[in-house]
Amino acid sequence: xxxxxxxxxxxxxxxxxxxxxxxxxxxxxxxxxxxxxxxxxxxxxxxxxxxxxxxxxxxxxxxxxxxxxxxxxxxxxxxxxxxxxxxxxxxxxxxxxxxxxxxxxxxxxxxxxxx
Length: 115
Known about the structure:
The protein is mostly helical. It has helices at residues 2-12, 15-26, 32-49, 53-60, 79-82, 96-104. Helix 1 (2-12) runs antiparallel to helix 2 and helix 1 runs parallel beside helix 3. It is elongated. It starts with a helix and ends in an 11-residue tail after the last helix.
């Protein structure tokens, strides 16, 4: 069980969750010290080599993800620096066809938003 907790934490990076799951599975809290040591050590080793399996899957599946940026780098940013133009305004009372057009025909196409 200690090895499973260490492997799971090293690859996934969720220390507390995995420790709780393993302890709940065994029901024996005398295993807490070795599991805690294994989980902390494997998290440190896993973080040294890479971010973890879930972080890698985000990049492999090309899921949009905002990387962490320091507060100093974002101090002087304005909304215009990070938004895509032109901006599409949604009204409180809009026709369903307008929303359908935005959802199905304009994904990734700038020409749909030209005025």
